[in-house]
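Subject: sequence -> structure tokens, single chain

Hey, anyone have a minute? Need the predicted structure for the following. Not urgent.
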Amino acid sequence: MLQGDRGLTLRSVRLTGFPRGLAAALVAAIACSPLPGTPPASPPASAYSPSSPTHRGGTLVAGDWEFPATFDILAAPTDTGVRAAALVFSPLWGLDPALHPYPDLVREVPTQANRDVRVTPDGRTMYVDVKLVPGLRWSDGQPITADDVIFTWEALRDPAAGARSTLGIDRIRAMDRRSDSEVVWTLDTFGGYLQIGPEFWVMPRHRLRAVPPGAWAASTFFAQPDAVSGPFAVESVVPGERATLAANPHYADGRSAPAAYSEGRPPFRHPAYLDHIVLRAFPSRPALLQAIAAGAVDIGFHLGPEDLHALQGMAGSNPLVYVSPRQEMLNPNHAQNTAADRAPPWVSPGGQDRPVLEALDRALDREAVVGAALGGAGRPATALYAPSVGAWTGSPIPATADPEAARRLLDDDGWHLGAGGVRVKAGRRLEFELLSVCGSAAARAELDAIRRAWSAVGVTADTGCRSRDQLFGSGGVNATGAFDMTLYSIGFASDPAAWAALALPGEQNWNRCGDSRLDGLLTRAAAAIGPGERRAAYLAVQREWLAYHCTIPLFQWPVVVQAGARVRNFSPNPAMEPATWNAADWWLTD
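Reply:
Had a minute. Here:
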């Protein structure tokens, strides 16, 4: 799991990390393209248009209050690690800020239009032809080949590797090497296959084949990798303090050839414009803010809404705030609370008491919750899926609270007001425990806002907290079902297929969601191919999910980054977190 401040990162059909942060990827434009992940008739041209540098070279300083523990981008445990590793490794293809796919290590993004994607007549099997740019080289001069792609896939399949993302990769049944630069994937039909490329960070077989995937996390290679594919290479590391990256001398090999790419305008065909990027870790958030104010940092990461007041007053830099794919949500336990040895009040002997969860949902004022937790900087949830998917999902979640409707639902369901204004049914009070992560003032304010909203309709939520490890660890509250309801955030890939992990049977279904109808809808949706078919399928998933309340979406978290005035082409990308996706194009004014 990706470790961040108050949640998890879900980039796949496996939970592989928690934010402690979160993340995403889409395959189509928000307003006018097919549902993300759908094989498009033709990929839209990238709208990304960086400025040409008037000055090349120089050193950019990126600040954080956490040091990247590893450059293993496949299994980095923190957002900080992913951000650093994305500077030195490249994906097969990516997504620009307008959510259009662009080729990176591949010559072209595979689609049905360019005949790189074929589906068998029975609709069960899909073939994806992955064609690498000829002449690509690792930073040590060795060629990047189809063997590296196959090697990476085999590592990702090994649970011991602890991969952050296996979305779609788990559907690949075989890889057929056609040449040094071409490999054909055979996979169970998956309409979201375009999600695979942005999370498929190719690893160097010649450097790692002797290291078992389970040992990668502790390997010296990922402490300071010496064979990388990204725009920068690791020059030196002072653990806990700084990592100095130098422009990768072989980054443009193959990319800069006139016929390197077969279609579109790939963005990264040149060496990095900067000479160096220094990743500096400061001892605390206040120390980072002081360094930004002093002009010692060009880009400040790992900031939050609580920092905006200080950031807005700093000369020479400006805060950038954008909606992330990280969704704050309530997580009701749909089975037995193993700690209390009893089920929450919405779980009855006959199954789910849906009116209870519906009433809890209706009573919530999401704008007030965002105001309490983030000072209004977040975006209230209007749908199950992240905003990048929301253009196709409508706004099924009401914008405002409806406490009267909540009261009627509970009255009609037999929950009547009792002593102390708390509702009672068959002798049981409508009371339960709501847990979040300890140590966060924002979480405390959020819990209080939720508690007040429910108290107004006759529901008592006993709010409390647990440490990150107690809440998210393998033997923790969520994993063992020792809770009534929890509150945390998850960063989703923007394709709706990413939500399946939370509801289908498996170790990622912490909420013990057990809706057979929802399971069937999710399974059918994953195999849908055509744009209309996928849209209809995931709209049906959304309707059932929200009716069953597998989770209760609250709001989307903002991302806050401070960028210096002399930084050019820094382009935060909600589709391709981390924000270092286009570092090859960064440059500094004189």
